[in-house]
Amino acid sequence: MNDLKQIRIAVGIVIAGLVVSGLTAFPLLHELNFLAKLLAADGGQTDLSRWILKVREGLEVTYEEYPFIAYGTDWLGFAHLVIALFFILPWRDPVRYEGVLKVGIAASLGVIPLAFICGPIREIPFWWRVIDCSFGIGCIPPLWFALWKLRRPGR
């Protein structure tokens, strides 16, 4: 497999992740209701199940009284989709748009301080902040791989 194809696969993974995370930001309450049903079927009260139920309750109460708050997560989902569009540039021409890959790595690293600064302020459990960080950190290997492929001698 040639370098361009490998770069496109790596960048495609990032694009797919952004699209999936963007699309799942829209139906949050429906997703939480589904998760709550799955967790209820399990029967155990874990930290995760208590957290999911608490978040679901918060969204139910908030959406009932202030449905416009969901507009914020609509914009979050839209932002993920727009960011995914930017990665089409290095997918098509990685040499010309190498900078987008670098910005992607910087943004992925930026998830960590955001989670650990804002998370405690918003009363997000530590383990959930680690999960949030894992999504940003998960983008780094394919982006790094694409940059490495671009910088290899003989290119």
Spell out the helices and strands N to C: HHHHHHH
Work out the number of β strands. 0
Span between termini: 14 Å
The number of domains: 1
Q: What is the overall shape?
A: elongated
Largest sheet: none
The low-confidence parts are none
Determine the mean pLDDT.
94
* Rg, Cα atoms, Å: 19 Å
Helix share of residues? over 70%
- Provide the β-strand percentage band: under 5%
Report the structural category: mainly alpha
**How many alpha or pi helices?**
7
Any key phrases for this structure?
155 residues, mainly alpha, 82% helix, elongated
Characterise the protein shown here.
This protein has one domain (3-150). It is 82% helix and 0% strand. The chain has helices at residues 3-23, 28-42, 47-65, 70-86, 88-92, 98-121, 126-151. The longest helix is centred in the last third of the chain and has 26 residues, at 126-151. It is elongated, with a radius of gyration of 19 Å.
